[in-house]
Amino acid sequence: MQCSKCGNSQVIIKKQQSGQYLCKDCFIESIEKKVIKTVKKEKLLDKGDKVLVALSGGKDSVTTLEILNSFRKMNVIDICAVTVDEGIDNYRQEGVDIAIRHAKRLGIEHKVVSLKEEYGITLDEIMQKDNHIGSCSYCGVFRRTIINKAAREMGATKIATGHNLDDEVQAIMMNYLEGNTDNLTKLGAKSSSKAKEFTVKIKPLREIPEREIGLYVVAKELEVHFDSCPYAQQSFRGEVSDLINKLSEKHPTIKYSALRGYDKIKEAIGDGFKKTYPQSRCERCGEPSANRLCKACTFLEELGKE
Q: Which DSSP letter does residue 288 get?
């Protein structure tokens, strides 16, 4: 086998969608060009943006940071980062330490916020409670709230997350299977809210498969935390992921086609199902909320954290 682009015999991957064989250098270049193309096509960045990267220390967030840093080097944007420590013993600290080292390597503003400091409880402690509703429900809400607050405090104009192709297709399938049409309307490369307190969120890696992101960080010799969250396989997302990956074995382009299909009907879904919520404030924390309490404070109340 030879690299389809340069003829190098040291091939490291056959691309699922195109069938191309690529060597290390051409593969790295293809990933970076694809992400930059997504950024331009979806208009994810504006000159002068200060982008907060949700930096977990895992492969997706480190890749997001690495590629967005190319825009920083060209003085198009500035970058800062926040790392959320959910409080998972024998798992989380390694990722936090890696995130700290990457922020220092690039010389960017960075803060670490823990669930324990912010809410007085860790994810491990939540999962020991009899009335918990699953790790991902709490983690997603608390992480989003912390990251959004950090974006305001650090003066960020955009929040960049490391959601990849697999993540996005899983979210599409999960919300469809659960009949959650409201959440289905909110997916996409870029999302914003009428409430000015919610910073615009962008997903530069949305069209890159998880497998290729893993190979990218290895090819570039980037330090990342590869371990999976110990709670992940207990979740509905884990079940949906297994199903989609099984289908991909016989239908290798199914993730791409699912994403393209969603993008084609997204506008129609939004027109038909998107809800409008009353502009209000959470009685407990003051964050924008359609109800008496925001989702984070509702969870805290249910968990007995007054």
A: B
